[in-house]
Amino acid sequence: MAQDLPPQGGYEPRNLPARGFRPGYYLLGMFAIMGYGWYKYIKGVRELNELGREKMWSRIHLIPLLQAENDRDQVRRYWADQDREQELLGKKTRIYHSDRFVRPTYGITPTNISK
Length: 115
Description:
single chain; mainly alpha; 1 helix; rod-shaped
């Protein structure tokens, strides 16, 4: 059986258009999408930094209020303790034989001690 061969002189040239866009358009589109993504990312990072800065400053401004609340609570406990001591002992006791206020220290002791 004879093999099928091209005709003598070859096939006539065909004009087939290329499929799809030129590669440059694909690159341009890819860079445009990536640029938009980077823009949104950087904008989001700046927003997060601003929110963190705002949170830090709000905490800094709240510290005096929280400290004053804690001080009022300690003074209330101190006067209640003094009244309780006067009730039990019948006289006012002083720490270090001074009228100066000494901030009480609270030590937490464990409930079960193993030896």
